[in-house]
Amino acid sequence: MKISNINNNNTGFTLIELVVVIAGLASLSAFAIPNILNNVRLNKIEEVKALMNGYASDCLGKFRTTDDPVEFIENAAPDELDNIKLSSLGYQIDDNKNKCSHVAIEPIKENEENLYAFDFRISIEGRVLKTAIPSNNPRFLNSCERWAGANCGLSEEQKAEFARLEELARAKSECISNYSNWLRDGESGEFVSWDTNDQTCTRSVFAFEGIPVNSAEAVEQALQNKYGVACSNWRIDQKNANFTSSNPRTLDPECGGVNYWFHSGNEFTSQVAWTEYDNDLKKQACEKDRDDSLIQGRNGRYTYGPTPGPSPCGKVVWLCNGEEYESLSGFEDSSCYSPVLTGTGETDTEETCTLSGGLAVLCSIPAYVSQPFCKCQ
Predict the structure, then answer these.
(1) Last residue of a domain, one of 245, 269, 293
(2) What is the pTM of this model?
(3) For the segment 153-170, what is each residue's pLDDT rounded down to a tens digit?
(4) For residues 80 and 52, what is the distance between their CA atoms, to the nearest angstrom?
(5) FRET partner for 71 with CA separation of 20 to 30 A, picked from 159, 233, 292, 332?
(6) Are 36 and 134 within one domain?
(7) Segments of 182-230 assigned E as strands
(8) CB neighbours of 252 closer than 8 A, spacing ≥ 6?
(9) Residue pLDDT, tens place only, 307-353
């Protein structure tokens, strides 16, 4: 039997074929490897996002159980927040932004081109705000926007507005909390709460023994219904005596814990109203003191009084024949300037001092007679 010979011509791959294959693999790698690395980084970011969402959830849980929102904003922090887990993912806590009011993280590498910084804030009203700063790699922009939406890349104006709203919310919470505590303590009289129109803590509110009422007249009526007219008679006596003091006064128990402030025959139910009236009197006295000093032709260095008080109270000027100079250099060019040799060999300007008509009016009030501004210096 004849067996044919089989010709096995196994010459292998040629060098050209190998070069073509290697070049093809290199080309594929040039496209695939960066995408693989980007996907790895994106997966890290998604893991960090999950951690941040967990921190936010923890903070919201703390907010729902607190009875003091201000304390929450100042001290509450996520229980599991730390740099150990974050550092394994290429992130770290941004400075001291580790409270629920503002948790912020940033890439560990300073010149990071891919990972981006992001954060969240819990407002004093329990609202969550997410923001982020996009990286230089446009492939990560979608990830940034999925976290922060339109807040991915805030302008300086937006940052300032967020800060303003945060401070406003804090002020509102403190204001309402103080009012609630005042009612809880069973207080009576006038207090302040949040004014939604002006966005300030200036709205006058009233209560009698911890129960809100509509007006100061309602407080007065509740007082008389419970204690009779004893409190009213005492207040009339204080006004008739022209009693003046910045400290509150009350008659216990006849006034039911309501505080009153008295000023030269007038009665006020809040420190703010008393201070406003007192400043108005001082301002009138200072303006009259200035007018009198100019009319009377006072010369030399002079301080408008009484002080302290609103402008022009306490303003130091130099006067010359009805003219007012706000600086010594200006006064030195006037005809009234006359250097006086002092014990140190230096020169000074001659000062005069008399109690003008403006001060005389204010100092006629007994409470001010002993004040320094009522004495000629």
Answers:
(1) 269
(2) 0.54
(3) 988 888 888 889 888 888
(4) 10
(5) 159
(6) yes
(7) 189-195, 200-208, 211-213
(8) none
(9) 788 889 989 999 998 889 988 888 888 888 876 533 433 444 444 44
